[in-house]
């Protein structure tokens, strides 16, 4: 039985590395989890006594668009396209050969690539931890937004994780995707704050 308390505890155990810039350096310092890019440090989570509640979602049925195809990654070519599409969707520079090689070496069930009219349009995935599917990284190329690609990625991950025994789909959603997920029937259980600071700034 997934109570709000159990769901929030699962959320606190879930990291937030997906969706960060590929050049970011991940840092854990005591109760703090951050990533560094240049002179900026972004606080992703604080696990101390005053940690804020996270934003998580319970699994619910959603409508599926008919004109979007979603495939689960299984080939080198799909991984290459996944990396290219992910970088384009998040606004990063095109992936390097090392980025692609690293992605291929980490290939495991749960990564999805979406096509609209045979054009790669979005990516997303999940990691299964026990019977909890931790959703990560869903993003759609700007020119392909508003066509149901994001909804198709959500549905594919729900189906894929449920077929592997998941009973809860957990999402740490941003301000853009959170309202969409709630309209699809997901339930909000809390909120997490992300803070960015210039680590090179001189104190006033």
Beta-strand fraction estimate: 25-35%
What's the helix-strand series? HEEEEHHEEEHEHE
Number of helices: 5
Q: CATH superfamily of the domain at 53-192, please?
A: Gcn5-related N-acetyltransferase (GNAT)
Poorly predicted runs of 5 or more residues: 49-59
Distance between the termini: 51 Å
| Global outline | globular
What is Rg?
17 Å
State mean pLDDT (0 to 100 scale): 81
Task: Provide a quick synopsis of the model.
This protein has 204 residues and is of the alpha+beta class. It contains 5 helices and 9 strands.
Describe this structure in words.
By secondary structure, the protein is an alpha+beta fold. The protein has a domain of 140 residues: Gcn5-related N-acetyltransferase (GNAT) (Aminopeptidase, 3-Layer(aba) Sandwich), CATH 3.40.630. Helix content is 27%, strand content 27%. The protein is built from 5 helices and 9 strands. The longest helix is centred in the middle third of the chain and has 15 residues. About 5% of the residues have low confidence.
